[in-house]
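Figure 2 data, in text form.
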Amino acid sequence: MDATIRPATLADLPALTDLYHQLHPDEPPWPSETAAAEVLAKVLAHPGTTIFVGTIDGRVVSTCVLMVTPNFSRCGRPFAMIENVVTDNERRQRGYGRQIVQHAIECARAEGCYRVTLMTGSRREETLRFYEATGMRRNAKTTFEARFI
């Protein structure tokens, strides 16, 4: 069964909080639901940023974030990043993650992006093969990072 994919809304806050906790189980919880809602509202209002959710029977089972960034090179064609890809632990291995990532890729293409990039910190071969199955190429770029947490 394919998921229905749509942009997230503030009403998805509980589901997103749960999915992101599954993605980063060691992160501390939000100090309050109000604080989480305020940040989610900022993200949802940010130009070029879309949090997609995949639903089955109205229940959110997967998510990813697509950020389309204006660009001056490449004759002004934007570029995109995909972040925070997660499928509910109980719904993995059913194609929902692949479906939502491919949806984000197609949205980036529709926005005229010249590329879309996805980075993962995972070294697990099954995770890397998962991203390749979505159409992403491994080792296409070298990534550098300055982390502040």
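Caption note: The chain has one domain: 4-133.
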